[in-house]
């Protein structure tokens, strides 16, 4: 399944280190697209150009403070992901809560970095997340799976399954989707893949693939979606150095 993408990854690795200016330009481009699309999937109305302006420290008229904070917070969360990758730290509950705290900082400080204490439902999905009482146990099970069975999986499969299982638990009141996409990219980046961008125009396919993973334990559609986006990011990098 991953032959073609592994070949492209090998080509990228063979050309490392990339020129500094090229690498910084790619990083800036993907940070912007990642932030814009991840927020737009959750309903943020800032355009990609408005998102760029907010990242530059300028306020956009007619937009809410929350929408501005979602951009700033997501930028800070990506920086934290890069720090984890640089330090080669293993995934932990502490990291997950830190990512969530960054995402909800000054938006909902009472629940930032804290597991939910009430029932939630995922709009439009067949799957219903577990009671809040079971979250600590299910998160512990998830991390045990990650530390043992998941290690033998291809990074795309591992990141995709981590994302799907995590969203099924839906451990936080708000911000789950953004944290999940950060965790997915964290797994890819640990193995040297560029971050991927799940585009807002693919939101319906993304949600349907996730719901299928929860209700049928069938991850194929989601793995294919992530593989396609991972190949797109690799192509971006390879075209920049060709």
Strand fraction: under 5%
Q: What is the share of helical residues?
A: 55-70%
The total tally of domains equals: 1
CATH fold-level topology: Fic-like fold
CATH hierarchy, class: Mainly Alpha
Low-confidence stretches: none
Averaged pLDDT: 95
Number of helices: 10
From the coordinates shown, what is the CATH architecture? Orthogonal Bundle
Q: How many strand segments? A: 0
Gyration radius over CA: 18 Å
Global geometry: globular
Q: What is the terminal-to-terminal distance? A: 25 Å
Q: Major beta sheet, specifics? A: none
Q: Which series of helices and strands comes N to C?
A: HHHHHHHHHH
Structural class: mainly alpha
Assigned CATH superfamily: Fido-like domain
Structure report:
64% of the residues lie in helices and 0% in strands. It is mostly helical and 242 residues long. The chain has one domain (15-241): Orthogonal Bundle (Fic-like fold), CATH 1.10.3290.10. α2 (20-41) crosses α3 (48-55), α6 (135-147) packs antiparallel against α7 and α7 packs across α10 (220-241). The longest helix has 23 residues, at 65-87. The model has no long low-confidence stretch (mean pLDDT 95). It comes from Lentibacillus halophilus. This is Fic family protein. InterPro entries: Fido, Fido-like_dom_sf, Fido_containing. Residues 91-228 form the Fido domain.
């Amino acid at each position: 399944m991953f032959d073609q993408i592994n070949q492209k990854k090998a080509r990228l690795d063979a050309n490392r280190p990339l020129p500094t200016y090229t690498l910084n330009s790619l990083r800036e481009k993907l940070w912007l697209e990642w932030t814009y699309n991840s927020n737009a999937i959750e309903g943020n109305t800032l355009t990609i150009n408005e998102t760029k302006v907010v990242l530059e420290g300028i306020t956009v008229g007619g937009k809410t403070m929350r929408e501005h904070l979602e951009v700033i917070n997501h930028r800070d969360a990506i920086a934290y992901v890069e720090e984890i990758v640089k330090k080669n730290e293993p995934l932990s509950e502490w990291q997950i809560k830190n990512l969530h705290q960054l995402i909800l900082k000054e938006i909902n400080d009472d629940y930032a970095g804290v597991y939910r204490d009430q029932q939630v439902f995922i709009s439009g999905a067949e799957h219903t997340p577990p009671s809040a009482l079971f979250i600590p146990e299910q998160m512990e099970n998830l991390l045990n799976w990650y530390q043992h069975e998941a290690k033998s999986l291809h990074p795309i499969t591992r990141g995709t399954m981590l994302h799907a299982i995590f969203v099924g638990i839906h451990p936080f009141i708000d911000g789950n989707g953004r944290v999940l996409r950060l965790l997915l990219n964290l797994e890819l980046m640990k193995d040297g893949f560029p971050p991927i961008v799940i585009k807002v125009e693919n939101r319906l396919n993304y949600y349907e693939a996730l719901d299928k993973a929860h209700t049928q334990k069938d991850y194929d559609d989601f793995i294919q979606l992530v593989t396609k986006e991972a190949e797109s990011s690799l192509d971006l990098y390879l075209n920049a150095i060709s």
